[in-house]
Amino acid sequence: MNILVTNDDGIFAPGIYSLACALSKIGKVYVVAPNRQRSATGHAITMHEPIRAEKVKFFDKDFDAWAVSGTPADCVKIGIQGLIKEKIDMVFSGINKGPNLGTDVLYSGTVSAAIEGAILGYPSVAISLASFRNLYYDGAAEFSIQIAKKLIENELPLDTLLNVNVPNCRKEEIQGVHISTLGARKYNNTFIERKDPWGETYFWLGGELVDEKKEEGTDTYSIENNYIAITPIHFDLTRFDLIEKVKGWDIQV
Amino acid sequence: MNILVTNDDGIFAPGIYSLACALSKIGKVYVVAPNRQRSATGHAITMHEPIRAEKVKFFDKDFDAWAVSGTPADCVKIGIQGLIKEKIDMVFSGINKGPNLGTDVLYSGTVSAAIEGAILGYPSVAISLASFRNLYYDGAAEFSIQIAKKLIENELPLDTLLNVNVPNCRKEEIQGVHISTLGARKYNNTFIERKDPWGETYFWLGGELVDEKKEEGTDTYSIENNYIAITPIHFDLTRFDLIEKVKGWDIQV
Questions:
Q1: Pairing relationship of beta strands B28-34 and A90-97 according to DSSP bridges
Q2: Are strands A64-68 and A176-179 parallel, antiparallel or unpaired?
Q3: Cα-flanking dihedrals φ and ψ of residue B96, to 5°?
Q4: Which of B40, B103, B171 is opposite residue A47, by nearest beta carbon?
Q5: Angstrom distance (rounded) from CA A184 to CA A220
Q6: C-beta separation of B54 from B67 below 8 A
Q7: Of B210 and A114, which is predicted with more confidence?
Q8: What are phi and psi of A164, to 5 degrees?
């Protein structure tokens, strides 16, 4: 089995190392990842400038690995359609530093890379560790092996991928596995206004998560209660249940 | 009524000028748009560097207008949460140069800006002109007035926005309005490999649309047949119908 591994924290982030090492126990790993931090790039792709892809040494491993100047979605495209000569069987993206829950998935480069894998027709998984401090990647990495095995045994529709969030704790502290929906996740954004050394104004996007009730069944609830949250997601944004309603608006040219 | 207008082709693109002028007939227009071409940025946001927002003269108009160094989604965030002091009633993004049909919406900065508007709780519309050549924006711009009026008369759920694609032809050639689903839209990507003047390899994302059957009821079908396509879309990617199935996989920690 050939597995493409990517992420959005960059090719030299510890999360992708843990993930690639774990998956190398069950298949041949190819690493194609951004050459720098590319968090919050969403599903951006690079159309208007060239992309560089440099073959690199991946830590202490002999995996084929490329550091790419583009986005996570670019990495999956160029990995499968340009760099790797073998047939890929599966795409894994992560392990992300920090959760990708609820509406986070729209902004997440990690999830977008897995969505790109699904668009191209490959079983795809995004995996994130739900903390920003004292990260313990190895538990999530071990769990990725199980996910890969389940994806071989059980087929998902081609337009569907798995978004996995793992609590940042020891295996014995994890309460179990939930198959969850995406929860609500709102940020109270503030733009902090500052002056640069030349007196010109600039802004930083700041703000914090609004603490709200986490409904049972959602990924936010699962993570809060130390469960692994697995959410099947797809990329058809059509709001089917409103088609008839909007037809009733009788919009004319 | 206060209307925020943005796009992904940049603040000095002709499409946003047509849109802003049309909407100024029914409300006060605020323009907050990228200071350069930002197509295919998806739902990227700028978290890891500062954002500049420069007040600019918008063509021959007196609209309040800012050219922003960030992405289209940034423009909506910083417009509503930082720059504009009045209460915004509606967000319009466009008029995009080129269609945003089917899976295009995932990559589109234009659509992502409207999604951001919906995330923040505002009635939001993305509008695109379905051609890259000999663009005739004024018809689509006039049509945006009708969409805005319908959105006032008829409420959409807060998590839903409208993705509108307009055929690039004279009003009398348009066959009507379809409320459509997102169609399939596949690209046969190829990465063109070249050498730079110093002998180093670089790649360009190339390739073309795969011509496939356009199913009746989809936006791709509507546009092909010279209908305006309006698709209600949302941003909950959960594949609800597969939750129970994946529960049956019995994944253990």
A1: unpaired
A2: unpaired
A3: -70, 140
A4: B40
A5: 8
A6: yes
A7: A114
A8: -115, 130
Per the CB < 8 A criterion, the answer to whether B65 and B30 are in contact is yes
Strand locations in A138-200 (E) = 160-166, 176-179, 187-195
Q: What is the pLDDT of residue A47?
A: 87
The yes-or-no verdict on residue B242 having pLDDT over 90 is yes
B195 touches chain A (CB under 8 A): no
Residue B63 pLDDT > 80, yes or no? yes
Nearest to A109 by CA among A46, A203, A184: A46
A169 touches chain B (CB under 8 A): no
* B12 Rama class: left (phi>0) / alpha (psi -120 to 50) / beta: alpha
DSSP 8-state secondary structure symbol assigned to residue A61: B
- State the Cα–Cα distance between residues B185 and B101, nearest whole angstrom: 7
Mean pLDDT of B174-182: 96
Q: How far apart are CA B95 and CA B116, in angstroms?
A: 17
**H-state helical runs in chain B:** 14-23, 72-78, 104-107, 109-119, 137-153, 219-224, 243-247
Please work out, in degrees rounded to the nearest 5, the angle formed at the alpha carbon of residue B118 by the alpha carbons of A44 and A109: 25
Q: How confident is the model at residue B238 (pLDDT cuts 50, 70, 90)?
A: very high
What distance in Å separates the CA atoms of residue B89 and residue A81, rounded to the nearest whole number?
44
Q: Please report the ipTM that was assigned to this predicted complex.
A: 0.91
Domains of chain A (ranges, CATH numbers): 2-184+214-247 (3.40.1210.10)
Q: Which residues of B touch A138 (CB under 8 A)?
A: none
The structure tokens listed for A28 are 């041949």
Q: Which residues of chain A have pLDDT under 70?
A: none
A195/chain B closest Cα distance in angstroms: 11
Q: Are B92 and B125 in contact (CB under 8 A)?
A: yes
The per-residue pLDDT for B188 is: 83
Q: Which of B115, B127, B112, B178 is nearest to B22 (CA)?
A: B127
Residues of B in contact with A71 (CB under 8 A): 44
**How far, rounded to the nearest angstrom, does the alpha carbon of residue A233 sit from its chain's CA centroid?**
12
Contacts of B98 (CB under 8 A, 6+ apart): B128, B129, B130, B131, B132
- What six digits make up the tokens of A90? 């599966």
For residue A31, the model assigns a pLDDT of: 98
CB B34 within 8 A of CB B7: yes
Rounded to whole angstroms, the Cα distance separating A87 from A177 reads 31
